[in-house]
Amino acid sequence: MANIEDQHYINLILNGNPNAFAALVDRYKNMVYTLALKMVSNKEAAEEIAQDTFIKIYNSLNKFKGESKFSTWVYKITYNTCLDSLKKSKKEEKTSYIEDFSEHQTKEMDNILDTIDDKERNQVIQDCIEKLPNDEAFLLTLYYFDNQSVDEISKVMDNSVSNIKVKLFRTRKKLASILKQRLEPEIVEYYESERR
Fold first, then answer.
1. 119: which of 42, 84, 87, 127 is 20 to 30 A away, CA to CA?
2. What CATH code is carried by the domain that includes residue 35?
3. What is the pLDDT of residues 68-108, one digit of tens each?
4. Considering only CA atoms, which of 35, 41, 18 is closest in space to residue 156?
């Protein structure tokens, strides 16, 4: 449904009605800003990136061929605009010490998260994602909060599906380590003892 509506506005714009672009901006502005904020961790920079992203989208509309969803195309432009901005500012990525985490422990953390109500879980994940490097935070935002498939993420990040799966696995391991430190140790210990 959204694809058909998006294409309708794209056609209007390409046929000489630039005012129709406002509908696309309105539909995607929150998504673009949120993703930019994940990458640059600065509200002013994220606003600037969002503006640049929409300028690029407008100027490139004739290049959108409909081979992927329009939203995937928008994600990709947002991601690339963020990368360009980070290169320009040469901002140092935040790094945090991440202990090695096994696949079993990662699954345990997923199970623990399943026991927390949705609102609290989202806030906990959000807080922990902010401790990750920008590109990993972006990846997990697409996966957890925007419910993007691995296939769609691979198109956005211009990477193979297998590479995205590996990155997603490694990033989830890092997130699990941060979550384990963040969640109250007694809850984790209690849950793990129940699982034995």
1. 42
2. 1.10.1740.10
3. 889 889 998 998 898 888 877 764 444 333 334 455 555 55
4. 35
